[in-house]
Amino acid sequence: MNFFQAQDDARRRTKWLVVYFILAVIGVIISVYGVVAIAMTYLGTGSPFMPSVFLVTAVITGGVMGTGSLFKSMQLNGGGSVVARDMGARQVDAHTTDTDERRLVNVVEEMAIASGVPVPEIWIMDEELGINAFAAGTEPGNAVVAVTRGCLQRLTRDELQGVVAHEFSHILNGDMRLNMRLMGLLFGILMISMIGRTLFHALRFMNVRSSSRDNKGGGGVVIAILLAGVGLMIVGSIGVFFGRLIQAAISRQREYLADASAVQFTRDTNGIAGALMKIGGQEYGSKINAAKAAEASHLFFADGGMFSYGLATHPPLDRRIKALEKSWDGKFISTQLPDVALGRAAQRDARLSGFSGDTSTPPPLPGQTRVARSEMNQLGEPSRIDAAVGRHLHAGLDAEWIHACHDREEAQALIFGLLLAEDNQLREEEVLFVQKGAGHDAGELSVEWNHKLTDLHSSVKIALVDLAIPTLRRLSLPEYERFVEITQWLIASDGQVDLFEFMLQHIVQRHLDSHFRRTGHDKIRYRRIEQLETESNVLLTTMAALGGEDQMESAYRSALEESGATMTMLPPSECGLKNVEQALEKFDAATPLVKKQLLRMLGMAVMHDGSIESREAELLRATADAIGCSVPPFVKNS
Questions:
Q1: Could you tell me the CA-to-CA distances from 627 to 119, 459, 490, 518, 526 in Å, in that order?
Q2: In a domain? residue 631
Q3: So which residues are the signal peptide here (predicted)?
Q4: H or E element: which one contains 611?
Q5: What does 278-310 look like in DSSP terms, one character per residue?
Q6: Where does a domain end: 512, 537, 566?
């Protein structure tokens, strides 16, 4: 399934999620009323049907569940790190020297570069020995990928890459955001069970004999509380049943799609299939022991082993493996703990020889690759994502660049350097502003990075931005506000700013705002591209102008012929940065399929001569990112 279609499908399923939730609330309200009616009848104060009591019960129960869901949903707006902490995970240091963790960091970064999304935060569940993983977040800008210790110890690099690719599929096709909303709603359903457990445990602090002696009705009150507690726990189990039903309905079939996408991303069936076989062949399986694992069971790579009343959130292992490998013989793979210090002697020898890490020669960075017209017809296709391209680009990055992207101070200077102007006089003014706002060393470092990165392929610049995003999330809020102020000034300091640099700044701020300001995405407001005709025209005219004034009109007409739209090219005065920014903000609130229509139209404008130069292609990627779409690099793995 095309990812634009998958995201649109996930958006539509959100409506069904709300319907399921309402039905679950009604079922729980009726069950709670039954418990209350039985308790009142036992005390001699009620009858089987009491309309006023039912109304009060409905208001209180619905209020409790709604409040619980609202509270949890607001908490989850903090992004995937909230879920990771609930699972007892810890964040991986990007500078880690641990071999297993270093391998994980490389795999995740390569997959992010190949997918065209910011690198998610990387977390490890150290106490979990089963083979499992999850992706969580409200959008790619605040996403996390977490794996268990069992993943690191039991899986090969290819198998780990398959698991990570599976989780990236959930990020790209919209499942991740849907799953976060499901977590918020499920918490409200589980509130009743929590209250029942609280009442039941409260009896431990009450003296039944004393209550009976001091108050003739005291014993009855205690028994009523006991019945209410047990009853609410039973009703809570009904809520849990509804929760599992919703989880199964929403997530079960999506696992097959994520498995298939992982194979397309990695071009390797053995990786993810091998991971699934090892789950079936080891003692701990994919079990998750974290206390809050049940709330997030639908997020995991495999069934976490929680009691599911027969409503599993994941398909059986054998079916998933059979779907990937038709000739599978039905045998699982038994695993053992890796040898102590495996490979460390070779690493030590490499360090003593003056090297660290991989000693192979990195592949050359991509040149000015021309993109064929067919590439534009494949926008959103899983086949366009190739993990090998991510590995190719990542391996071609200088170790100094990667280190800078992982350092919170240097990452800021690197971004400043990417945004400095080409004009010497203007650049001097910009450096003075950086020095005034962030210090003398920051200005000098920005100039150094500008010299090092100016002539790089634009896909590499985007890769560096993607690598820097998780590091920049570690800034304090005042530091982030200063960072944004400087980057915005660098863009606005010249009315003729480079459009690619403007887009870089826009996507950096967009992804970081979701973390620091919890802005999230706007609600869908535009469902047809005709509603955004003016904004489409602004972006189309701007993109058509990339080839120069002599080709601008023909590029514009070429895009209109492909799209069937009827518009008139705007004058340059109506396509300034402010107009472009407003157009991007509105398209961010459009449906995925509307965004796809826009990107295809813009692509046809820049390839009216039959192909797209690399910088034009990467500008198209940056534009896509600015409206919430992930487009992989337009480079091939040579």
A1: 18, 18, 22, 17, 13
A2: no
A3: none
A4: strand 611-612
A5: HHHHSTTTT----TTGGGGGGGBSS------TT
A6: 512
